[in-house]
Amino acid sequence: MSEKVLMKGNEAIAEAAIRAGCRHYFGYPITPQTELAAYMAKRMPRIGGVFLQAESEISAINMVYGVASTGKRVMTSSSSPGISLKQEGISYIAGADLPALIVNVERGGPGLGGIQPSQADYFQATKGGGHGDYHLIVLTPASVQEMADLTALAFDLADQYRMPAMLLADGTIGQMMEPVELPAESGCTVEKPWALTGTGMKRPHNIVNSLYLVPEELEKTNFERFERYRKIEETEVRYESFMTEDADVAVVAFGIAARVSKNAVLAARKEGIKAGLIRPITVWPFPKQPIAALADRVKGFVSVELSMGQMIEDVKLACSCKKPVSLCNRAGGMIPTPEAVLAAIREMNGGN
User: Fold this and answer.
1) pLDDT tens across 148-168, in order?
2) Residues 194-215 as b or e (16 or more Cβ within 10 Å = b)
3) Of 138, 199, 201, 325, which is the most buried if we count CB atoms within 10 A?
4) Is residue 28 helix, strand or coil?
5) For the chain, which domains are there?
6) What are phi and psi of 326, to 5 degrees?
7) Spatial contact of 28 and 78, defined as CB atoms under 8 Å apart
8) Cα–Cα distance, 15 to 6 (Å, whole number)
9) What is the pTM for the complete model shown?
């Protein structure tokens, strides 16, 4: 077994990206993800990679677009306001069917908000924050170990399905330090005949583009892209199920909220309340099926979030409104306590 090292979540993402074969990073410093950029600034020159602090977030995402078109593994990172600035470029990358990794270590909002942790970018990440019809594969780590593991997975999924992926982490996971076993060195094994690598006059020129002026061509492309999305929803859903086998109340939470909720579930069990937890690891694709299955037998669901309530809409859709869904939340950079989640579990259980 590999030796574990103590790392911040942001640093674990950076090192895992390097080990996954990423040699191009373009970004801009913003709290609470600046350590990621700083790590890349130190490491990339030493391994023959490219680190570039762009003049703006808009420039950074368009640099990602350029490198992604060559088939190289490339990433950017930012926090909530910076990700907003990148949205046009993200839409272009999705529209050109290019693989890339975007990391969002979330802070409170809207606007400049604050620098404390948040999960209020859920809608932006899962519903397509830019213009047009598209999705990102969105992975949500709940530990420093998952910051590393899901970074490697995000690169693999982006290459496999030829689309951008996002690592959506709250600021707490980015800033906390935990032991982490770093992934082995790897790289892309997917053939990329579409990439702009030069032809040597041996093949027709490739064109990477998101512009379709003929309506029928754009419609055909969108239908084909959404067929790929359908396959992803069938095969790439990831979640953790904790004590749900006999649960009467199901908690749904991701990231730091899931860690708090797990403690609340254990406390509820000590009181004789059969509580369980569904932790989405992918929030797109969302784990609809396990939630739908639970809806046939639980009393209700509690959605625990660091926002004013965004994921709760997907929970309600997944259970087809068969059972009540309540919200246990804090906003502005605050984190719900296990006691608050336990109180919400008690209430959903009928006040017992």
Assistant:
1) 999 999 999 999 999 999 999
2) eeeeeeeeeeeebebebeeeee
3) 138
4) coil
5) 5-235 (3.40.50.970), 239-348 (3.40.50.920)
6) -105, 165
7) yes
8) 12
9) 0.96
